[in-house]
Specification:
Blueprint: H1 2-14, E1 26-28, H2 33-36, E2 42-45, H3 48-64, E3 77-79
Parallel strand pairs: 1-2
Antiparallel strand pairs: 2-3
């Protein structure tokens, strides 16, 4: 999660590690923390809005008795910023 990754950035700096030369740090969620951190975090955008929208649709369909696919797959997207030069 981006909050933990921001903590890792702080710890790496305390240990005099260069980011991303000595250590690469990647967060998850693409939250506001990822752009407020210095260096800005490379992060995975899980498209939370899309996930929530699909959840609501699935709940409505389930409650109305509609047939649902057994599984839905969502892909995340890597947002490359300064903390990891992938």
């Amino acid at each position: 999660d981006d909050m933990l990754a921001a903590g890792a950035v702080k710890y790496a700096r305390k240990m005099n590690l260069q980011i991303p030369q000595d250590i690469k740090i990647v967060g998850y969620n693409n939250s506001i923390i990822s752009v407020c951190c210095e260096p800005k975090l490379t992060t995975i955008d899980n498209h939370l809005e899309l996930l929530c929208s699909q959840l609501v649709k699935t709940c409505i369909c389930t409650l109305s008795g509609s047939v649902q696919p057994p599984k839905t797959i969502f892909s995340g997207e890597i947002i490359v910023r300064e903390s990891a030069d992938l």
